[in-house]
Design a protein that fits this description.
Active site: 154 (acyl-thioester intermediate)
Number of helices: 10
Order of helices and strands: HEEEHHEHEHHEHHHH
Distance between the termini: 18 Å
CATH superfamily of the largest domain: endopeptidase domain like (from Nostoc punctiforme)
CATH class of the largest domain: Alpha Beta
Transmembrane segments: 188-221
Shape: elongated
GO biological process, one term: vitamin A metabolic process
Signal peptide: 1-22
Keywords: Acyltransferase, Cytoplasm, Endoplasmic reticulum, Endosome, Lipid metabolism, Membrane, Sensory transduction, Signal, Transferase, Transmembrane, Transmembrane helix, Vision
Helix content: 40-55%
Oligomer: single chain
Length: 223
């Protein structure tokens, strides 16, 4: 479970532009996005390189979205918490499994990416709730919350708000990929080769032999 979370974390981190050193990212220019086509309760998607970030539009250039963040654990200062989440805060939030449902401007939410509106509606069809109900659900959840990369991320948040069911297709796809790797018998051979290489390099010891045996056995049985 820990390994899966760390792997999934690698595709969830927002890469800051070069030279920011994990500090505050440069804000997008106000009015960069045309919000006239957005309606209260819309589900917004921002495709990244390896993942998609989600939020619920609340109207007046505001978006509610779930972000890993360590800061609410240490302070109740809303002014500090409301600042754009840096990579340091995000990483520590993922590690400690803490997050917050926050309200940001469209510019801060999208972070320069393109925005898709209600793109997931086609997958849920008749399950789409009313726009006002979706927005009210999002507003009620604003504040600190628990976080899990696999079981409670930004996609779970928006699907609960708009469709009444907290699901994550990104998580499902990742788990299916892991399942395919485990079922592929070549992974057994790879684990044996890696184990033998570690034994040759580090010597015959419980720390090298036992993982080789158990991991190979697990992959063989799971396959």
């Amino acid at each position: 479970s820990l390994l899966l979370e760390k792997l999934l974390f690698l595709v969830h981190v927002r890469a800051l532009p070069a030279g920011t050193d994990g500090g505050e990212p440069p804000p997008a220019a106000p009015g960069y996005y045309d919000t006239s086509c957005f309606q209260r309760g819309d589900l917004l998607e921002v495709p990244r390189t390896l993942f998609v970030h989600f939020g619920i539009y609340l109207g007046e250039n505001r978006v509610a979205h779930l972000m890993p963040d360590i800061l609410p654990t240490f302070t109740d200062d809303r002014q500090q918490i409301q600042q754009v989440v840096t990579n340091k805060r995000l990483i520590l939030g993922v590690i400690t499994k803490t997050a917050s449902v926050r309200v940001d401007t469209v510019e801060d939410f999208a972070y320069g990416g393109s925005i898709l509106v209600n793109h997931m509606d086609r997958l849920f069809k008749d399950q789409v709730l009313g726009s006002e109900e979706a927005a009210l659900r999002a507003e009620k959840l604003v504040g600190a919350t628990a976080y899990s990369l696999l079981w409670n991320n930004c996609e779970h948040f928006v699907t609960y708000c708009r469709y009444g069911a907290a699901v994550s297709f990104q998580t499902d796809k990742f788990c299916e990929t892991v399942k395919m790797i485990i079922r592929d018998q070549r992974s057994v051979l790879a684990s044996v080769l890696v184990g033998l290489a570690s034994i040759v390099c580090l010597g015959l010891a419980p720390s090298t032999t036992l993982p080789t045996i158990f991991i190979t056995f697990f992959l063989w049985m799971a396959g």
